[in-house]
Structures are given as C-alpha cells and as structure tokens.
Amino acid sequence: MKRKERPTLLKEASTPGRRGYLPPVSDVPPVPAGELIPQSFLRQTALALPELSEMEVTRHFNSLAQRSFGVDQGFYPLGSCTMKYNPKVLEELSQLPGFQGLHPLQEETTVQGALALLHYAEEVFSTITGMDEFTLQPAAGAHGELTGLLIIKAALLEQGETDRDTILIPDSAHGTNPASAALVGFKVQTVPTSPAGIIEPETLKPYLNSNVAGLMLTNPNTLGLFEEKILTITKMIHDIGGQVYCDGANLNAILGWARPGDMGFDLIHLNLHKTFATPHGGGGPGAGPVGVKKHLAKYLPIPRVVSTPEGWHWQYDLPHSIGKIKGYWGHFGVIIKALAYILQLGYAGLKQVSSDAVLAANYLQTLLKEVYHLPYDTPCMHEFVLSGLRDEQSKINTLDLAKGLIDFGVHPPTIYFPLIVPEAMMIEPTEAVTLELLNSFVTIMKELARLAKEEPEALKTAPRTTPVRRLNEAQAARHPILKW
Amino acid sequence: MKRKERPTLLKEASTPGRRGYLPPVSDVPPVPAGELIPQSFLRQTALALPELSEMEVTRHFNSLAQRSFGVDQGFYPLGSCTMKYNPKVLEELSQLPGFQGLHPLQEETTVQGALALLHYAEEVFSTITGMDEFTLQPAAGAHGELTGLLIIKAALLEQGETDRDTILIPDSAHGTNPASAALVGFKVQTVPTSPAGIIEPETLKPYLNSNVAGLMLTNPNTLGLFEEKILTITKMIHDIGGQVYCDGANLNAILGWARPGDMGFDLIHLNLHKTFATPHGGGGPGAGPVGVKKHLAKYLPIPRVVSTPEGWHWQYDLPHSIGKIKGYWGHFGVIIKALAYILQLGYAGLKQVSSDAVLAANYLQTLLKEVYHLPYDTPCMHEFVLSGLRDEQSKINTLDLAKGLIDFGVHPPTIYFPLIVPEAMMIEPTEAVTLELLNSFVTIMKELARLAKEEPEALKTAPRTTPVRRLNEAQAARHPILKW
Amino acid sequence: MGHPFLPLTDEERRQMHKTIGIERIEELFKVIPSSIQESAFFDLPAYNETETVKLFTQWAEMNTPASKMVSFLGAGAYEHAIPAAVKHLATQSEFLTAYTPYQPEMNQGILQAFFEYQSLIADLTGMDVANASMYDGPTALAEAVLLAGNFTRRREILVFPGLNPEAQQVLEAYTRYTNLRLKFLSPTAELTAPPASFLNEQTAAVVIQNPDFFGQLVLTKELLTAIKEKGALSIVYVNDPISLAILEPPGTLGADLVVGEAQAFGLPLSFGGPYLGFLAAQKTFLRSLPGRLVGKTTDLEGKEGFVLTLQTREQHIRRERATSNICSNQALCAIMATIYLSLLGPVGLQEVAWSTVRNSHYLFSQLTRIPSVKAYFDAPFFHEFALDLGTLPPDFFTKMKERGFFPGYDLSHYSPPLSGGLLLYTSELRTKDEMDKFCAEMEDCLS
Amino acid sequence: MGHPFLPLTDEERRQMHKTIGIERIEELFKVIPSSIQESAFFDLPAYNETETVKLFTQWAEMNTPASKMVSFLGAGAYEHAIPAAVKHLATQSEFLTAYTPYQPEMNQGILQAFFEYQSLIADLTGMDVANASMYDGPTALAEAVLLAGNFTRRREILVFPGLNPEAQQVLEAYTRYTNLRLKFLSPTAELTAPPASFLNEQTAAVVIQNPDFFGQLVLTKELLTAIKEKGALSIVYVNDPISLAILEPPGTLGADLVVGEAQAFGLPLSFGGPYLGFLAAQKTFLRSLPGRLVGKTTDLEGKEGFVLTLQTREQHIRRERATSNICSNQALCAIMATIYLSLLGPVGLQEVAWSTVRNSHYLFSQLTRIPSVKAYFDAPFFHEFALDLGTLPPDFFTKMKERGFFPGYDLSHYSPPLSGGLLLYTSELRTKDEMDKFCAEMEDCLS
Ligand SMILES: Cc1ncc(COP(=O)(O)O)c(C=O)c1O
Ligand SMILES: Cc1ncc(COP(=O)(O)O)c(C=O)c1O
User: Fold this and answer.
1) B-to-C residue pairs, Cβ atoms closer than 8 angstroms
2) pTM of the complete model
3) CA of B334, closest CA in chain C: separation in Å?
4) What is the B174 CA–ligand 2 centroid distance (Å)?
5) Mind listing the pLDDT tens digit for each residue in A366-385?
C-alpha cells in the first residue's frame, strides 16, 4: 500500500531463537558428537544465518515478489530474450513426484519413463530443427555454445586439423558467442554486418582461410533480420572445411517456416527458456540443448540415451565424445516443460507461434519508425532494433527512454545491444500479445517521444513510480558491496 | 509500477475468437445435436462469457491479487477473525491426489484413508474442546450455529418441550448468533453485558424461565473477556432445563488452558479458519464443526463416520439425527488443513499459541490505552476493544482511523463491532506477531492519534495510498450495480 | 519454545511481560476458574512437517481416487477437466490469506473478482442478480426456499421428483422447524403439462431440478409460466452448471430464483467439499437475498471501485431479522469458478457441455445393447442417465473397480427399491476407447 | 487458429496485416529462400492440456522415484527434507516469469534476493564474496579452475582423490583444449601431510573435495597453508553444503575459492537438474569471477537499492575477453536456496547436519556387523561411507528395490575394480526403524 523502504534484509530481520522450520531429527541412540566427527573438523566460527519464523520468511519473499516484475505482470518486450507467456500447466508437470523425486543415479530400470521422455525430447528437437542428433546436457544457451565449440574442436583434432584455430563471428552477435569461443581456446575473428543488416558473402570471403574452424551465426540475427544468403554462406564455410554453428536463440521467428538443419548448419543450440516457454526464473535455470548433423554426432557428450528392445539405456561407451559438460543429464525439470509446451502446439501451432511473433514485430516496427530511428528499414522477423529518437537534437538517450517506459508499467526492451547500433533498443514482442497491448505500447512509445521533446526532465529523472529511483550503477562498481 | 486504473473487467477485456483453454473433446462418432437434445431445450440466448487467452487471464488475476491484501502481505489484526499465519504445507496436503480426486459417493472401501482421517479429526476436536462427539459437516461458523440450534430444537421436541422457544443471547454477541436462532424459529432474547464486560448471574436471572431453550455464549466473549462466571452461568441454564451453546470463534485464547466442555457447555462450534489456521480465502471457505456432549450426540447430522474392526463406515441409520445440513461430509479440504495444523503443534504448541495470542493482545492493550479509550480496562484475553480516541473533542471517528491505518500498510481492526461499544475497534493480533511488529503497530496508532489532533484532514481523506480513495458505500446501496 | 508457527521468542515474551507488568503468563489466565484449568490438559504429541506430510500421504494413499480410475460417478459431483491455471491463479497468497473485504480500498482485487463472479453467474443463468456465493448447492436451495416462504408469506413448497437427494435432505433439515411444508411430487404425475392441478393458493414455491437427478431435461417455459400464474415462485436447481452452456437459461424461461452447485466450474471433487453454491434471482428479490453482494460505486475522486453492499440485509446489522445467517462463504471457490469461466469462454464451455452430452449418449446406446440392461426412463437427458441392470452379481462394484472402473452411482443407496439401478455420468474426460472397454467389461460382469 | 498460448485472433491478424501493408503472412517470410521453406514441414500433432497431463503422468509413473523408497543414494545428489514454503514462495509469478534484472528499478525484489543469496553463501563458506550462481557444482568447479589458471598464469592443476566423478569429468571436458594440465593424485599418497612433494612452481591450483566423494573429511588448515606457501590456489569443492553447518568453513581455514553444488539447499532431486552451483572467493579474485554479481548502491535520492554490478567482467561488454561465458544462470534455484536457508536458520541447519551424521554413523556401525561387509576406509566421515560387500548376489539391486530400498550407489559404476563396493548416504529423513529393516534385508540378501 504505502511506498515502503526496501524490505529489511534477512539478516537485519533476524532475531535469536526464532525458528522457521523444524527438520526431522535423528532417532538413533545418541552418541557424543566428538565420537562421530573429530573436534578438529568441527565449526569454531559461529554459524551466521538469519533466524526467522515461517511467517516472516513468507512476508519477506512476498514483499520481494511485489517489488519484481515478470511476464505475468505485464508486457516484457526484452529483445533476444523471447519473454513469451509461460503456461501454468508446465509447472505442474515438472513437479510430478515421479519426476521430481528421481535421484540421478538410480538404476536404469527404475527410470524408464524419464529416459523415454528424454529420448523423445531429443527426437522432437531434431524434428523441429532439422538436425540429426541432440544432447540435452547444456544448462543454458551459452553452455550450449561451449558444447558446440568443444565438438567442433574435437572433430578438428581428430582430423588432425590443428591449425584451424579461428571462429568467425559477426559483429552483431551476442557476447556469449565470442566468450564461448575463447573459452575453448579459439581465436575470434569479427565479421562486419553489411548496411542491409546481414552478412554478405562478399564481406565474408576475405575472412575465409585454412585457419577457420567455423562460423557462429545467429539466424535470424540479433537485428531481427533473416540471413538471406544463408545457403551461400554455409556452403562457403563448408567449402573451406569449416563448420557452421547456429545460435538458435532466435528460433522463435521461424518455427515451422524454416529449419536450421536445412540451411546448412552443422550445429545448433536451442534456448528452451526462450523459444519453448520455460519460465526464465529471474535469470535461470534455462536449458541449451545442442543438435548436430550426423557427422558430428559421435562427439556429443556422454552419456546418450539409447532405445533398445529391452528399454532405454545410458550409453557411456562413446570414445569420441567430448565427455561431460555438466553433472548428470541436463536440466531435466526444464526439458519436461519445453516438451510439454511443444506438444500442446504441434506443427501447426508452432508455425503460428512464429507467424504471430513476426507479425507483432512488424506491426510495432511499422508504427514506431514514425518517431524512432529505424536503422535497418526492412520487414523484420520476430524483433527489430531502433536507434533512439528520430529527433536527433534530443538529449534524451535510450537509457532515459527505457526508464521512462518503466513509469508506464512496461518492461523496457533490451538496450545498447547489439553493439553495432548506436542507442539500440531491441524490441521483441513475441506472439504473446493482443492488438490492444501492441497499440497501447505504441501510444506509450509516442508519448515518450513527446515527453522527450516537451518535458525532457521528466525522462531524465525517470523512473518515479518504482520503489527506488534511478540507481547509481557506477558507484556500485567503484565500491562493490556484495554482501551484508 | 504506475498506479493504474482498475483492471478492465473480464467482459471489457474480451475479444471474440480468443481461447484460454482447450478442453478435451469427445471422440465418439458424431451425431447431429438435435438427435441428442431436443431443439426446444437448447440455448437460444447467446452465451455471454468473456473470451481471453491464458496470458490475459493470468495477468488479470495477478493484477487483482496485487490490489488485495492478505495475512501474507502484512499485519491483519481483524478482531474476532483470528487472522493468523497460514502455514504453507497445509496447501500441499489438501491437494494430494488421494484426497483431491475422491468423489464423495465412492464406495466406502475405496475411501478408507479419508474416513480414517475424518474420524481422527473428530476425536482430536473432541479432545481439544472437552466435548464427546463431533460432526464435521458445517461449512462455517454460522452454519455450525444453525446445526447446534437444530440439535437443541430436535432434543426439545423429542422431550415434548414445545414451549421452549427462546434463546438467550448477550448483547455483545456476533450477529450470526441471533440470525441463526431466528432461522431455526427461535425467539431471541438479548441479555445485557455488565459494566465489567461479562455476563453476571444476577443480570441473567430475570431472563430464566420455562420458555428458555438455551443460551448462546461466546467465551472469551467478543470484548475479549473471559466469562469468569461461566460455571455458575452454565449451571443456571442447566437448572432450568436449557442447553448452553458455545460460539467457539474465540477458542484461540484458551487452547490448552481451558476446555468449553469443562465449563458446562453442551454444544460448540469451531471456526477452523480462525483457530486452526486454514486460510480465509478472501471470505471462505471455512469450516464450522460442531461438538456436543453425549446427551446430544444422537441428534448430530447424518451420516456419522464409525470405526469397526472391518474398517470405517458411514452410518446413516440414526433416527434422531437432525438429518443433513450440507451436501456430503463437510469441507473435507479444510478439515485436512486444520488437522495438519493441530498435529504440528500438539498440546504444548497449542497452549503456547494461546499464551502468545493473549500476551500479544495484552501488550497492545497496555500500550494503546494511553491514547485510545479502553472501555473495559482489565487484562484481556486474545483481543480487546477500544472505543475511539481518548481525546473526546476529536472529530476523527473510528472509520477515519481505520482508513488512516491503511495508509501505513496495516489492515484495520474490526470496527463498529461489538455493537455495545461506541466507535469500537476490535484488535486481535493473534500469536503470529513479533515484538517489532507489535511495536510498529503501536507507533502507527500513536501517530494516528497525533494526526487526529494536528492534521485531522489527513485522516478524514484517508486512504491516499490505495488504488482507490475512500469509497461511497451509501451510493452503492442506493443505486445497486451488482453486475456488469 | 521455538516453533515455526510461533514467531515470539522467549526473550520477546520476557520483554512483553515486563511492559504489561506480569511475571508469568499464568497471571493473564487467572480469570479462568482453576478447576477448569486443571482439567484442560490433553495428550497430543507434535509432529514436524515431514512427519505430518508422511502421515497425511499415508491416509491419501489408502484411497482410490475417482480421478485415477475410469469413473462414471456423477450424481451431484462432477469430474471435469480443470485447467492448471485455475489453481495457480486462485491460490495467490493475496487471495488465499485475505478475509472478507471489509476494507474495500485495501481489497479492490478481491471485490472485483466477486463482482465478476456475480456477473458471470447472472449471465449464465439469465438472471438479474447473483450473490457472491453460498456454502454449496443444497444449502443454496434451502435458503432459496426460505426466501420464497418469507417473500410470498405462503407455506407450501412443491418439490418436483428428481431432486438430488443431498439437496432434498438438506432442504428437509432446514425447513423442518419452520412453518413451511414440503410436498414431494411423485414421478408419475403428468409433470410436463401445466401443473394447475398441484398448485394452490398456499404454494409458496415450486422446486425443479434441471437436468434432474437422473439427467433428464424437465424444465420448460410453459411450466414456469403456469407456476407464475398461480402466484408461486419457481426455484430452479442446477446441479452441473456446465449444462447452462447449451440449455436455454432458466432465467430466460421465467424462473424466479436459480440456485445450484458450481463445483463443476473448476473445483476438484475433493470428497465433497469445499464446493460452491450459487444463488441468482430476478431483481424483485434483491433486498431479500441471503449472502454477500458486491456493488460498483465511486471513490471521493470519482474513480470506480467496488464495495460490499446492501449489508443492511445481513446479520451484522439486522441480527435476528437478517435474511440469512451466512457470514463466511465460499469466496475462494467463487474466484476459482471465475477463473475457470474466463479460461473456458463461451466456446470452451460449450465444447465441454457437448462433449459430455455426446459421450453420455454414446455410452447409453452402447450399454443398452447389453441384453440384461434396460433404461429406466426415455426422456431426453443431458450427461447422465439411469439404467436397470437387473440383479447385480455379488461384488459387482469391487469387480469393476479391480478392472479400473467406477461404474456409476448405485441407485439402491438412493432408494432401496431401485436395487440393480445405476446412475452413470460421462464427463468430457472419457474417451471412446475407455467407454468401449467399459461396455465390454460390463457385459462380461453382468452375464 | 484459437489457441490458449496464441492470444491474437484472426480479426486482429487481419488488422495488423493492413497496417503493415501485407495481404498474407507469407509476405513477411519471403526473405527465407523457398527451398528452405519447402522442406520445413514436419509431422507433429497437438495435444490439449488434458492429454498432455496424461502423457507426462504416464511417463512419470513409469519411474520409481527415490523419494518414495527408503533410499541411501547420495554420491553427489542429496535428498533432504524440503519445507513446503520453499516452493510456494519461490514460484511466485514475479520471480518465476521475470528474467535477469537488467532494469534494477523494476526488479529490486529479485536483486535483493540475489544479494541475500550471495551473503548467505559467503557467510557459510567463510569467504568474502560469492557470485549469484553457477549452473551446477561440476561447472562451478571447472570455472574456478579456469579462473585459477588465468589468475596464476600457471598450468598444472592438482586434483585430490575423492573428487565427485561428475565434477571430474566436467573438469576434464572444460580443460581439455586449454593449456591447463590436470594431475590426479592417487589415493595412496600421504595427502594429509603438507603436500610439498606434489606441489611445484607450475601448480596453479589444488582441488580438494570435502567431505570427499566417499564421505571422508580431508580438509585441514595445514593442507591449505602448505598450498598457499607454494603460490598455488586452493579450490575446495563442497558437494553437500549442509556440511558447512557443522564443519569449520573452508574460507576460515584459508581456501582461496570454494565452489560446490547447493542442490541440498531446498532443491528436489529432479533426476539431476536443475541444480545450483555456487562459487565463493576471497576478495582478491573479485574482478576475475565468472557470473553475475549483485551490489548495493543508492538511487538519485540516496535511497538504498541493488544492481547487477562489475558487468565489465562479463561477455556482454568484454566479449572474447570476458572472464566466462555464463549468461542465464540458476537464479530461481538461488532464490529457493535463500528461502531454504532463511527457514532453516542456524539451529535448523545444524539439526539437519547432525541428523545426517548420526544416522550415517549408526547405519555404518550396524552394517559393518554383517560378516561379509567391510568398510573401505577408516577415516572420519560425514554422512556418506563406502562399503565392500564382497561379491554381490545377482540382481542385488533389483531384489533390494523390491523390498523397498535403494541401497546406495554401486561403486562399480565409478570404477569397475570397485565392483562389490557400495556408497551409502543417510539423510535426516531416514529413521532408525527404516535403517534396522534395511540392515536385516541386507544381511538376508548378502548371505
Ligand atoms: C542471441 C543470444 N545468444 C546466446 C544467448 C545466451 O543464452 P543463455 O542466456 O541461455 O546462456 C542469448 C541470451 O541471453 C542470446 O540472446
Ligand atoms: C464471534 C463470531 N461468531 C460467529 C462467527 C461466524 O463464523 P463464520 O464467518 O465462519 O460463519 C464469527 C465470524 O465471523 C465470529 O467472529
């Protein structure tokens, strides 16, 4: 009700003697502690944890929730992140006791349903993307990239191609792409985007040489544009002996319309938390399954689920595998949700998802380019990038506009990315919109443009309706306070 | 974020063609509708229901939740209602598929666990209250009253006591008491409360005659005071051949300290949603089990759960029973929660509940009587009633104070009840408090008193921090608009 | 004592004692006669959360829920598919842990939800107004009958045959000590013709369940008109309001009061409760209605908002002259129904209704092919129908259970002469395959 | 197409087409080469919600979850009692459906929760700083090792025996193509003595799991001091941080980096994921840390608030020179752990720890009475221990399962020579009664 100060920290709210939970207590005959664990190992330092009742914990996390904003609270056109609606039934399914209560190391015979599900999920992802085989192990998109690059590396080394140490990455790529390449020890060579916002074969050509291990490409790319020359590009890379990796973060644009496998990509990661509606959870957990074409399948992480007449098994004996890139079998709970989402749509539904996502983006682009600068003025796919206000005299920058949006109850788009667009605002409405919602967003964006002109101070000092005003990020970095 | 207009009504938000759920659809061979149901029965009038997607429904009910306030959101000292904390595990238990999926008319052999649970719950309630038998059928406290009064009536009629047509009820009683009595065809005779806030045998005496069917008493009463003369009172009623009914709404004061059965009460209803922590759900569902002494047991509603060596059964063949007062067996889902709450506390825990509830109330009473008028200035039980500001010149009434509290993020106490206290504010902190919470409430209440003196306008126009300001209730009643 | 439900610590208790001026907590309880205190002890150990969950899970696992079977049990409580979002949205803690919105400014959300619930029920039934909920169908009916008695000042209540027996029993208990007399019409009367014969000047109301307990469609405009002409009120009882999706609403046909059980709108079977009674009326009865009503109004700045209204009918103010004693009601269940209806929408609700109709008629046609199986009635039915199976083999229900089926409601519970009778309900959850298997097992079991 | 996940109606689509200036949706996709479009079709039917629930329930019911058994499986994933409130509070839609709080003013709640998580982890491990989460324990370890390599510019990583095999394999995969060399110390080495012998100028870091994979306590101050003296970093891997409740924290003992798996803090077993990696460090490493960090700052009115900070380490800005590539992490799992820790508090967490210790030592003493059963080690252990059962009877695991037990982790999976070896874990959930029954069945099965 009243705009409150921030909720006290758990530690500040702690009162000695309070209990929030009574755990089960061992009922075996008592033995002195020292006989169980030598004194020298035991804690001398006091255990500093907060002491609260269940009610206080509940009110604390309720008030934190009230100071947070998710897709369920309103429009969230955060570009590249595909903040679509997360159907409620998905939560139910991942919480079934027959899934949630499974220990990862149970005997295979006791987890046949789980193995069947994982195996089927791999098949479905292959079908949707046009790839041959999938691993479900990666924990997120960036982790999928790492996995894919390890696979490329393993393949190269097996072929004795030790000189291929370079990965080509467009300048519009997400930061995880170069970071992942570096993690595997690749050099990163940046390929510039053409004035049309895509990679042109002509631009690419000079970068092609025998050191190239491969190309990482996001398609549609982070400008929201489909790489039209994709067939030529993948062929060019293949011709010089490289692999083409697809950052599948933007798959939401092309479900049922185009399959990365058919474009010539050799590997891809999916972001289940984007395309397939698993909730983002405030930043995770996601899942980043990786699909490959046949020639790379033997490098996939172990174990793989295999189906035999006697049932499903974990197969470990794969000598070419890159090994394990994560404990156990991936984010099982997330995979359940993604598969359940997909199965509720089917082919036709998935295709409609992309149709609507692309339609919504183009609708916004058409209306917003009247007042905002649209650097790549062409029909977009599922998202588009504006470059600040058209009014070039304006002192209002993209950060101000984002903070202004907050005061209208809308989550701002991704800002200052991709790096190649000055004052970038990357807008991705997703298919989870109504016409009324889109129109009201346009109205708000136009109102911001008006404010920028007529009352710039209102935007410079935005937001005003939030529990805190604009926060000093520089101070946070200069004097890091990272714990209580 | 932004203070928004009220969320659009579902109907206003409706758009033709939107779907929120795809139900299972019959897969039997198609037959023309007219062959199944004669045209004359079929709907001619259009079916006016809103059309929304799941996302819109989710956002709608999220935004309604954000404009609501429960115990999980903050302090809720609503007197008489015992707004204690509702432990989260209770929800889990009532949702177990083995409970939630039970059809009420399943064969007894398929519901043995449910019958065992109900039977045990009856025993536990009997133990706690000192009664002999319980029915779990009543849906809420008022429904329990009705049940109890039907039992009294049935007993009287069986004894041929047709002249006993009057129920005595103190003037401090909750409105449901007289209303329930009237529903069963009793006349209501109001007994005045003494200056000490309780019923005195002397005051009661003149009302005793051969028309008296019984007395309904809340103990502790709605002033938060224990009826000290209870043993005399129940004896007086018994001596003239009447029954004494206990409105058990205030049981939270005396758990483990005193049992209504030991006070001479013949019947009692419990409010599981008050004393036993089942969530109030915005106004329900609650549950109002009724306990009786042996001599009234044969009148309890049918069926009763009985335990036999072969298992548990429904017993219907009880010729003296008042019959059924509700479909099936009561609020099973609520009973589960109450029992689980009780079992997690045990005797010692329950007694501590009441100790803390009484302690908290007395603490507040001690500190608040400095600035508010305390009409019955004596140690209270679990709640107490203030009678407006001590400053008698003040133009600020209890309604203003309540609205003022809202602006401090506290749910106001019950106001203008009991009716015998002018400008009543009935404050029940419950045991679910910390000292800090109590102190901050005192600070706020004192601040309100200061405002009343120094800035009365601020209170007259409160609340200001809510989505709407003070609402015109008179207009609502004069021109009722009860649907869209 | 440190317990998760008891926030106060011993140290805080000590400080509070000091402020109050007591040494020991017992001092606050000394008003309670010591003899009472002495007998107050009982023996009840405490369980921790884990033990509690284990105990209740054991009880739950001793049951065989209908939801895990292929069940044809209806007879007043109806399994339907429940969208997952219903639970998620209804159990948000702001709804779950609030109480009746006595302070409207603080609870506009809950009030708006009730207003929407009232509107949906009124629209569905074709009535002017609906209240914010009753305990369940049977008590809603009983209260409607009491209302009719008070309103008409007449004494006789005619009850059509085919009223749900639970509702009938509750009605009997509620009216037993009033001046109302219930008259149960016999199934043989010519009930579809204008019922002049059985109405008289003392008839306060006629109660008609539609579809009736046996699934039959009995409500017609002519019937309601004839009742009205005699100055009696018509009370229509609806046990599965999914039927309102495809049947002409009672309000449009002329009913005065429409009451019923709305469990079917997104509430789990839950062994019979909590369910959701609804009560809708023509506006004439507005000030005679039991229960809470939410109305729209404006705030002091002219902004729209919602409040509890017409509270002068209620016991808080009117005490023994109140129109009813209901206080806590089924608020959260009403919110669940509102969410259910907003998710289903008109198309979804009609799909559900038609699926149940199609399934039941298919099952009826298949089962009645079994030589020993006969239909009890031949009137048109909705999603439920009664069969005469002849003499049931011993352990019929146990055998069918072992094969995975709850075959329906044993009508001998309803009325011993109907032994061998079975009332079957088919929800939209049943598939052709399940029903075909069921028919085969029935044939096997009955031969 | 009307679908619950697709709000747009055909009419809205038509209007949008008009605004954009297209006739058909295909026009927006014409940039996609037609050959690609032609091959894009696949055959995948759609299920409604009910069918989906049925299908997944079938899969779920094909499993026998450890949670329904008397299970002694640990070996890296630990069943503990989880307070019901954890799920309720963590899955509030504001947490569940938000993304990384890039806009701090709008997501102060989530940021504060991360700040509290960081603080709790730092306190528990005795370190200066913790990040906002890693994917899981194994990847946290791998990243810590990469950090150590970059920080020290040395190349050799010594790994103590008894590292969880999952962590070991992930570490191998992460480092295989880097310039780091892993050296696995053999269990026979005199590891508790100052390890001067196996440290050299090239040692970047020493990895020590404590308690180790076999449950043994191996971490001492002397060991960490010896490592520090050689200029190498010590990385302590903690697989069940419940141990930190009663063991002296690695940070206080002198560890440079403490990483591990925090699944035990309120996360369900969930077949291995999602779990929660944590990474804590001395402040020297602050600007080398992978992952997100939340810091406290003030707003333009001086009010306290929280923001993501030190983002210049991250790939958004630094791209190929970033300290790590991690972007989406385990935010919601971190919130769950924070809720778990706030509910348990110091007393609760120590009760859990001691209960697991007491139970495991009791079980150890009982099982080792069986003649054919021998302990593999005799070092002090925490809540897990390894037994040599000799030659296992065929179908040992199946037989024990049929009797209701998961007897533990088959060490022959870990290393074929350990065939007949069993690693047993006892949580606080196990009762004496269960353990006694288990011992009896074991004796029976092994004889
Ligand atoms: C284009 C692109 N690539 C990669 C990623 C990394 O994915 P994740 O955050 O799941 O690691 C993201 C998302 O943040 C992205 O938008
Ligand atoms: C003293 C008292 N008696 C009776 C009742 C009626 O209980 P219920 O609301 O459960 O019908 C209440 C609660 O509102 C009450 O406070």
Assistant:
1) 725
2) 0.97
3) 7
4) 7
5) 999 999 999 999 999 999 99
